[in-house]
């Protein structure tokens, strides 16, 4: 059982702060690192894998520093986001080379086991240059699993995978988490994270915005004011009945037609809107959420 | 822990010859030997033209270019695209990684630099094989130093090939030809001084001691390799994000 501990870690590049005073502990089981693009997820994974020095604070794996300490790689498997691999090798040659570099007693058998885990047996003798994005992702995965690490760090591992491969990888990560390994993966998609991760760490603009199990994070993200634009055949009537409902915080008639509306309880609002419209004979022509982007959800989390 | 990793050597060899510019490594010695054949046919066996050909084209152009192509081929692309992280995320000393990669580059210098110099030397001056041998030894010494220098360049900048070429053209070529003092800091001239000593009868550079040339070469080989390893210890996966 291994844990990575970040203690008041900041990292800046010249004047730009990429990670700002983050403290978190990544323990056994699957943890999802969730945040929009550019939030600092890759920087955090680089810090946790010994490929970046913190500008301040400390990053340790089982109390050992990660920076300039190559011995930590006995415990760590890393799947970087970048796609570049040794394209001139076959998949099998690549995984065997990784096993040899770890000094494993039987590199061939270890490689075969890892290749089977990611279901790449059929393509293992093809040159990596001919692989699809999903196959590259899986052979990267095999190379990082070959020494059966106690800690597995994956940067956006589901990118480029088709749904079947995605489900397979999710199963694999869950299985590794259940075995007591410390698995951390980053993603910008909440649904992806909550399907696999027991624990979710949310980062936004380099800051640690939220932490908890997926239920808590989901509540944080959905129990927030949601904005919509409605178009109906009777804006005035619907606006007044909706305003009387506790799920609606505010409503405003737009000059060019339509209602701008802010709902405070998304669950209830989605239930009462069609019912009230029907009861008052108002026809709903259009319901458009105006701030549904993940970025706006994250922005809300940070300001909360 | 061993000083070199056979796995990294194997991958390094794949890396050099698995790319298109690996072809250049075969072309450069062909040009050298081809020119030697031409000079021999036109001039006959002549010490002066042998010196001019092997120094002017061999030591000053072919050997540094072979070292540049081999060293950057084995290091620069992996650093550029980040795939070196697969070597670095292993419990292996960074100096072992550098030594393994330099071994591949040195082997290239031997096969595509020093041996063709020997062949060209024999073609040009078969009656005095020691001249060709001396140029081969000088090429090897210069090639090793160039490899360490270009390895360091590869881990310091993403433009190692361009900067390496500019260095060869401006420092070793232009300024080395114009300013006498440059010889003290010129790998090619150290290689020439070593060649002079081994051959015993050729004159390539004035007033540059053999001992100085050997010490300077060894310092560059060792220090360049060591600094490259130091630099790799601090490799940032995220680049200049």
Give a brief outline of the structure.
With 304 residues, chain A is α/β, with parallel strands linked by helices. Chain A has helices at 41-48, 91-101, 107-117, 133-145, 163-178, 190-196, 214-222, 235-243, 266-279, 294-303; strands at residues 4-13, 16-26, 29-34, 56-61, 64-65, 76-79, 151-154, 182-187, 199-204, 207-213, 226-232, 248-253, 259-263, 284-289.
Give an account of the 3D structure:
The complex is a heterodimer of chains A (304) and B (241). Chain A is α/β, with parallel strands linked by helices. Helix content of chain A is 36%, strand content 28%. Chain A has 10 helices and 14 strands. Chain A has a 6-stranded mixed beta sheet with strand order 6-7-8-3-9-10, with helices on both faces. In chain A, a hairpin with a 5-residue loop joins strand 12 and strand 13. Chain B is an all-alpha fold and 241 residues long. Chain B has one domain (6-233). Helix content of chain B is 78%, strand content 0%. Chain B is built from 9 helices and no strands. Chain B has helices at residues 6-17, 22-43, 47-81, 85-88, 94-124, 129-156, 160-178, 187-199, 210-233. Chain B is globular, with a radius of gyration of 18 Å. The mean pLDDT of chain B is 93. The A-B interface holds A 13, 18, 42-43, 46, 49, 51-53, 68, 70-74, 76-78, 80, 82, 84-89, 94, 97-98, 100-103, 143-144 and B 5-8, 10-11, 14-15, 18-19, 81-83, 85-94, 233-238, 240-241.
Number of domains of chain B: 1
Total domain modules of chain A: 2
Q: In terms of per-residue confidence, which ranges of chain A show pLDDT below 50 for 5 or more consecutive residues?
A: none
CATH level 3 topology of the largest domain in chain A: Rossmann fold
CA radius of gyration of chain B: 18 Å
What is the overall pLDDT average of chain A?
Answer: 90
Multimer state: heterodimer
Mean pLDDT of chain B: 93
Helix share bin of chain B: over 70%
Percent in helix of chain A: 25-40%
Q: What shape does the CA trace of chain A take?
A: elongated
End-to-end span of chain B in angstroms?
34 Å
> Low-confidence runs of chain B (pLDDT<50, min 5 residues)?
none
The arrangement of helices and strands of chain A along the chain is EEEHEEEHHHEHEHEEHEHEEHEH
Sheet/helix structural class of chain A = alpha/beta
Distance between the termini of chain A: 34 Å
